[in-house]
């Protein structure tokens, strides 16, 4: 049985708690939360650093800027303490403990359940001998456990911003254009899903379609004329140019 | 039985042919192709405008710039002729025939099968009385048939560029960053799929996560420093700014 303590009560902590609760080899013995959260049983919550129990792994799931502060306030030494951040080195964690990273590569939103089995978990430990326990913990909830060093994790985090946050923003622009023209946005959903599925069997370069990659300047002109929002026009132009540059390589 | 003739032999013609072949109410009696294509039975192909047969609907599936030319060369009058373009008015078709649009809203790539049942088909006819036959034809292959006027279709086409072509380009950038750091791109696939699925239950604005929407300037700085490609840096900055502008509205 792996005893886990979660430090933090946001989206990542909530989703990890739900996933670990279903894993028979793991027990979440405590959740540290500044204020009482309804997302965890009251009986296991504490807001007092001096009341933190003993556990095999301490997982700090707070905003990147707060990781160092939480780890500094821990009252114990030489235990395994990890954070869940994609863009933070493990050495922001206080060196009094054994350090590592447990980074689930997914977009977490409150009230939107996710299937943890499919979520890649990226692990790094300062000391090789700590890897096995993190790996066992990760495998208890996910089928995709990956040893990823600090530089790779940062690369993944940047990539995730492009393929998730920026992509979602393009969906939002599509949504705005549809709204202005009284078109239900869900009409674009099959296209959105096919675009996401297509790259399972083709590389993104092979999968590219549309006026930019065809160098169809007439359609590109028409689209830019059609758009009334300057910001949308600018994004249209820069991404069109970028697609055309790739094709020239 | 609806008799259909396809004019063109590219991706759209090929996918439509495959879909109509499974529809019991439709017969593709001929395919017009400049050169013999192995994607259609040889017996139904012609490259001679004077040999085109009689049919209920003629579907021109050629590049946008070639639509007018193909429609001008048709040797008959007063029959229903439609194109499949998202960004082209029906009046580029020669007025000697009854005109319309049959626009399947999907990304078609050779050798990548698609399930037509899920593909929205957007219909427009010059004359109200022609709508019923196009609707029957569309319903024979798709569960999503939509009456969409010319301006709406253009809006949809522009939106599709954002949510499909531009999104795919962001996947490509993610792929490049992964490659440079020896990370298998498929590790991002669950995130990509969840991003596409999430907007079925949340609006894109509600679904937004990441450093831009959190105004996490420290992480944004780190990401821009991490990127070595000037083009990627520029796209990162402009999309981050755009996400932050939306949130301020």
Molecular structure report:
Two copies of one chain form a homodimer. With 249 residues, chain A is of the alpha/beta class. Chain A has two domains: 2-148, NAD(P)-binding Rossmann-like Domain (Rossmann fold, 3-Layer(aba) Sandwich); 153-248, ProC-like, C-terminal domain (N-(1-d-carboxylethyl)-l-norvaline Dehydrogenase, domain 2, Orthogonal Bundle). In chain A, 41% of the residues lie in helices and 15% in strands. Chain A contains eight helices and eight strands. Chain A has an eight-stranded mixed β-sheet, with helices on both faces. In chain A, strand 7, helix 3 (131-139) and strand 8 (145-147) form a beta-alpha-beta unit. The radius of gyration of chain A is 22 Å and the shape is elongated. At the A-B interface, helix 4, helix 5, helix 6, helix 7 and helix 8 of A face helix 4, helix 5, helix 6, helix 7 and helix 8 of B. Chains A, B: InterPro entries: 6-PGluconate_DH-like_C_sf, DUF2520, NAD(P)-bd_dom_sf, TM1727-like_C_sf. Chains A, B: Residues 119-243 form the DUF2520 domain.
């Amino acid at each position: 049985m792996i005893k886990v303590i979660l430090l933090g009560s946001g989206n990542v902590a909530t989703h990890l708690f739900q996933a670990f609760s279903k894993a028979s080899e793991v027990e979440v013995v405590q959740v540290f939360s500044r204020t009482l959260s309804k997302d965890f049983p009251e009986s296991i919550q504490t807001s007092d650093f001096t009341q933190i129990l003993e556990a095999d792994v301490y997982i700090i799931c707070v905003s990147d800027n707060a990781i160092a502060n939480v780890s500094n306030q821990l009252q114990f030494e030489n235990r395994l303490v990890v954070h869940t951040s994609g863009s933070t080195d493990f050495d922001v964690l206080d060196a009094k403990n054994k350090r590592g990273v447990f980074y689930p590569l997914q977009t977490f939103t409150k009230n939107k359940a996710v299937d943890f089995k499919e979520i890649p978990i990226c692990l790094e430990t300062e000391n090789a001998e700590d890897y096995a326990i993190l790996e066992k913990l990760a495998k208890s909830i996910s089928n995709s456990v990956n040893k990823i060093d600090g530089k790779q994790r940062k690369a993944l985090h940047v990539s995730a911003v492009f393929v998730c946050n920026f992509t979602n923003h393009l969906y939002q622009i599509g949504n705005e254009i549809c709204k202005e023209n009284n078109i239900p946005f869900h009409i674009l959903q099959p296209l959105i899903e096919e675009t996401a599925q297509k790259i399972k069997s083709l590389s993104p370069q092979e999968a590219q379609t549309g006026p930019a990659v065809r160098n169809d300047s007439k359609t590109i002109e028409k689209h830019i004329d059609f758009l009334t929002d300057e910001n949308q026009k600018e994004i249209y132009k820069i991404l069109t140019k970028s697609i055309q540059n790739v094709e020239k390589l």
